[in-house]
Amino acid sequence: MTAQNNNGGRLIYGCMGLGGDWDSPDYGPGDVDAAAAAIEAARGIGITLFDHADIYTRGKAESVFGDVLAASPGLREQIQLQGKCGISLAEGGVPGHYNLSREAILERVNASLQRLRTDYLDILLLHRPDPLLEPSEVAAAVGQLMAEGKVRALGVSNMSAAQIDYLQDALETPIVANQLEMSLHKAAWVESSVLVNRQEGFDAGFPHGTIEHCVRKGIELQAYGSLAQGRYTGAPYASPTAADRETAGLLARFAEDNGTTPEAALLGWLMKHPAGISPVVGSSRPERIAACAGAAEAATSMSRIEWYSLWTAARGAAMP
Length: 320
Ligand SMILES: NC(=O)c1ccc[n+]([C@@H]2O[C@H](COP(=O)([O-])OP(=O)(O)OC[C@H]3O[C@@H](n4cnc5c(N)ncnc54)[C@H](OP(=O)(O)O)[C@@H]3O)[C@@H](O)[C@H]2O)c1
Hints:
- This protein is 43% helix and 12% strand.
- It is α/β, with parallel strands linked by helices.
- It has one domain (12-239, 270-293): TIM Barrel, CATH 3.20.20.
- An 8-stranded parallel barrel has the order 1-2-3-6-7-8-9-10. A two-stranded antiparallel sheet has the order 4-5.
- 46% of the residues are buried.
- NADP nicotinamide-adenine-dinucleotide phosphate (NAP) binds next to β10.
């Protein structure tokens, strides 16, 4: 069992579910224990990269993770931490907004390091494109953080090929990752690649050429929402469609035929794509994390027909 695919994709653990409630300002020992159990389960299936953001559970995801690190000597050196900055949640009458100014990047990264109780982030992602960002300011902040040893590599999230190039022109360090929502359910990333000459392809809402651009430039494609929030794997779901039910049935059958789980089959569908997609696993439950173990193997054993059958079932329509 390995968390690494033969085309370069790997499983990443998403920490958004750690730290308890988004609405509560505090966390307790139970939240730290839950984080420790999730981290152990993720490491148990070979995951080494942990995905954070300063805003997850309003900073508490980083805080509980920091507590686990402090209680586990040697753990920090065995894993990689990925952080994000750039989103300011609504607070005190100020609406939610984005801020990738030099000052905001420096302040947010320093606060994340404190909460995580670590000296450095292995990767810093710019969380969302801020229309007011000045590439030279991003370059100045990132250059300073790298010179101080606080950030080792830079990536982005929710960005198009054009936005990546625009930023890259000002940077001295290569952009190493782009994290986007990509799953069998949110399949605009692959719909747009097929419907290139049809209006639906543009309506799909995924920037054309971004997948290919990232592959060509060696930028890791990280997929969030990869478990489709449990839509096909047993989450209590208000109104599943016929397409949802058919997709869930196909995943269950693939799992049974291949001695794996529906979760691994779902992630395997993403990992079979030759772009080498790295799914970010967002469950905080150890048993659900463990169920993702066979994703790389599922990708290898999934046939072209099985891959297309899953896609057509989930899209609820035959290929054009
Ligand atoms: N860059 C960005 O803009 C961005 C945006 C969103 C997320 N992310 C990252 O991506 C990670 C994953 O995102 P995500 O959490 O939206 O997507 P996900 O991995 O598809 O879904 C995980 C969520 O679905 C629930 N779930 C999954 N299977 C379930 C089932 N069978 N029954 C009940 N609930 C089930 C999990 O609950 P349990 O915890 O109870 O298992 C968890 O809340 C996050 O942790 C974060 O690191 C990044």
